[in-house]
Amino acid sequence: MIQMMKPKSFTRVLPWLIPGGLLICWFVICEAEWVPRYLMPHPTDVLMSMSSYMFAEPGSVPYAGRFLTDLYASGVRVILGFLLAVILGLPLGLLSGRLSCAQQVLGMFLNALRAVPGICWLPLALVWFGIGIKTTVFLIAMAAFFPIYLNAEAGARQVNPVILQAGAMLGVGRLRGIFSVLLPAAMPNIVTGLRLGMGVSWAYLVLGELTGVTNGLGAIIMDARMLGRIDIVVVGIILIALIGRLSDSGLHSLMKICFKSARRAI
Amino acid sequence: MNSHLKIVHNNSTPLTPDLLKIESLGKWFEIDNKRIPVLQDVNFQVQQGEIVCILGRSGCGKTTLLNLLSGFLKLNTGSIKLADQKVDSPGPDRCVIFQEDALFPWLTVRENIAFGLNHQTIKKKQKDREVDRFIDLVGLNDFANYLPDQISGGMKQRVALARVLILKPKILLLDEPFAALDAQTREEMQNLLMELCCQQNHTVLFVTHDVEEAVLLADRILLFDSSSKGIRENLSCSLVRPRERYSRDFVNICTHIVSLLKEESGRRNV
Lengths: 266, 270
Description:
The complex is a heterodimer.
Chain A: H1 7-13, H2 17-31, H3 43-55, H4 67-98, H5 100-114, H6 121-129, H7 133-158, H8 161-169, H9 174-208, H10 217-226, H11 230-258
Helix pairs in contact in A: 3-11, 4-5, 4-7, 4-9, 4-10, 6-7, 7-9, 8-9, 9-10, 9-11, 10-11
Chain B: E1 5-7, E2 18-31, E3 34-47, E4 51-55, H1 62-70, E5 77-82, E6 85-86, E7 94-97, H2 109-118, H3 124-137, H4 153-165, E8 171-175, H5 183-200, E9 204-208, H6 211-217, E10 220-225, E11 230-237, H7 248-269
Parallel strand pairs in B: 4-9, 4-10, 7-8, 8-9
Antiparallel strand pairs in B: 1-11, 2-3, 2-5, 5-6, 10-11
């Protein structure tokens, strides 16, 4: 009974309620054969395919043992795109949040650009960069830039002026104040922006790998779809979700280790 | 007038040299192309070790004056000199304790107190010793590793006090720092402030609208008035310390100052 469970163990169970429920539904639907297997593969088939994709000898069966190569290819693309978005989004966001002239210069342009869906950039990126890593990195950077920029801007704008005054009064100069007062004070918003940016990066990875690249987690999803291997498509989706979740926790922990101010972020 | 309360004339010769000198200070704000004067021709001096209270109703320009002294605002006319140096930007020689919570929320009590020293050239061992001493002085030994969100309002103001006293400022500027505290905590904080200031001979400029607080703490009370855009009365308070809140002289002085403030509101309403 819920009431008899200890609160801690109950809260540990909560995050697994929806995935567990969905898994049971999936299992029941497949067992009852309400949907044909070529549309929705059985969970055990997906598990077998996942095991083969991750651990089998490469080349023994299609998609066998490709996981590490694909993870490496996708990981590099995501990290490069994300870093590019951070390098541009964070300083521009802070600048916009603190200087009204910067906000006026950047605000309208970036808010118009933000309304353009990511997929619209795909043809342009293909023309500019061709098929390959550059296009994917460009698309990821374009997508991750906006949450990072907007949250850094909001964070910098919402910093209590008294905190900045306290820093100046305690002898912190303008430039040092950016690092020892402004950035830490805006950190909860910055962390939110980075986490959203990281999530979007994984989402746009698949779009970037639609372009015909041969390896990567997004690439195998598209490849498997064309070959009718829905089980591999599901494997790809599950792995991207898991890696996305892990990279989010990793990023959050890394921020907490590197910056005291990030410990306040939820 | 009470024998413990005397009018100070600006031309009277001070016993010690002036630490803070304010001459012909004027400040206005431009709102919708209209010039709104807040302070006009303000002149006064503060001597080393003196505790001066600026007392006045809301909107009389006392916080604006404090912001000018701390360097957060630029003055329009006149000059402010601290130890013969012109004041034009914020600095650790004029530390402020704000009315609202201005601690750095990402730093612990210890780190907040050490913050100013981190930006000075001081050896780590000496810094740690100083921080320990000030944590002890404000009685927060058991809370040194707590974050500001985890401590009470009174404790936060103790941290704010330690964070500025550790820098040994030439003058301490306080902007109604105890206004948001309950009566008992406020009294504790007033006593702590007096104790620390007397021990270390700090010069203090204190802004308040609380007459009792002004009489309790001040050597001199500058009565601010919105109609004259500056000082209306410069009163010297010579009650012996420690001051008894409910003594006859204390109550008399408070009553007299309240009547002066009422005169102003009477003039406003005419």
